[in-house]
Amino acid sequence: MRNQIDLLATVTVLGVLEQAYFALQVIYARRKYKVSPPETTGHPEFERIFRAQANCSEYFPIFISLLWVAGIFFHQSVAAVCGLLYLYTRFKYFQGYAVTAQGRLGPLYASARLLWLLLGLAVVGLLAHFLLPHSSPWTAALAWPRQLLGAW
């Protein structure tokens, strides 16, 4: 059982660590620019860091849900690679937004495409699970790409 979800669990823990890093950056920015909680406005750099962290936190539950559904019902390795790429694009989003608001756009679009890809994989996996009999020719036709990916 564990080897069927180990990659998903690893990406999940990395995602949680990334969220913790973003939260720490807000704490450091609060201290640097003397913005005490619950204030959310102040120096423009603080506001960008605060918004970047908030935006990343808002999308995190969607990401985790899609990661696990795609990983369980489509393929763990494919979902894990998409998840790692997503985490990387969110990190670049955070870095870019901290510098300028425009700096977030490229990584934002990349991370959105990865979420859509995870959604597509999740839907395909769920449809195959519910609609295809497990002994049908379609299952065999869909099995060979999954077997190739399984060797990966």
Strand content: under 5%
Helix content: over 70%
User: What distance lies between the first and last C-alpha atoms, to the nearest angstrom?
Assistant: 18 Å
Name the structural class. mainly alpha
List the quaternary state of the chains: single chain
**What is the H-and-E element order?**
HHHHH
Poorly predicted residue ranges: none
Total number of beta strands: 0
Biggest sheet architecture: none
User: What's the mean pLDDT score?
Assistant: 92
- Rg computed from alpha carbons, rounded to a whole number of angstroms: 19 Å
Number of helices: 5
Question: How does the overall form come out from the CA principal axes?
Answer: elongated
Summarize the structure.
The chain is 82% helix and 0% strand. The protein is mainly α and 152 residues long.
What does this entry look like structurally?
This protein has 152 residues and is mainly alpha-helical. It has helices at residues 6-33, 44-73, 76-99, 105-131, 137-151. It has five helices and no strands. Helix 1 (6-33) packs parallel to helix 3 and helix 2 packs parallel to helix 4 (105-131). The model has no long low-confidence stretch (mean pLDDT 92).
Keywords, separated by commas or semicolons:
0% strand, elongated, 152 residues, single chain
Structural topology:
Elements lengths: L5 H28 L10 H30 L2 H24 L5 H27 L5 H15 L1
Helix pairs in contact: 1-2, 1-3, 2-3, 2-4, 3-4
